[in-house]
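Expect sequence, tokenised fold; for instance:
***
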Amino acid sequence: MNHRILSFYRPVVMGILNVTEDSFFDGGKYVNDAAVLHRAEQILKEGAGIIDIGAVSTRPGAAEVPLQEEWLRLQRPLQLITKEFPEAIISIDTWRSEIAERSVNAGASIINDISGGTFDERMAEVIGRLHVPYVLMHTTTTPDKMQQQTLGENILAEMMQFFGYQIDKFIKAGCHDIILDPGFGFGKTLEQNYFLLKNLPSFQIFNLPILVGISRKSMIYKLLETDPDRALNGTTVVNTIALLKGASILRVHDVREAVECVKIVDML
């Protein structure tokens, strides 16, 4: 496990490395050793503070992947990156406590859970025992159903209740380094996503770092009537707004552009 201290005095960029065949934007790009190492090197050279490795697609309608298959996809890239870039801070995008534990034992430093601890009841206990930072994201249900089960009218109230309950649960389990993620695109309509972006400062009531992951998502490309491949400009605009609204971490596919956003906003 990497025990380096990561400060959020200045916002940090988290670079995405999906070792999946079916992720909505970069699925199938990083499924061999050379491609994984090249992508990890690119993420670090362009200025990201964290590499986020995901082995299961969480796009709307994505099917569940068996635990052992998820680990088979993760194990080799994690081994390669920790050996080649020993100083890198690695986050693992998983909702499974067993995968979280295996990953931390193999060198990962952060667990990024799209379910905020609601898909696996053991997650809080495992994170508390491992003493690693934990990204607690809001979602309404599993990816295969989330577009049919969106938030109701009292968006902020529902999310505040969710976060309050889950934060308390994780703190009681011994987890004290929690990062909140509003979960843009997860069980939210397009309009609800922009309502959340506008009201992002509301989540500062918890006094925890806020992660924003909107990179090339449908809330951008559907609004602009384009597609993920042509959504970089929109992503940069939304990332800039998120920083101005108090985001501490930007989770992105395009690291260099996000780092430039941070530098410009930092000058303000």
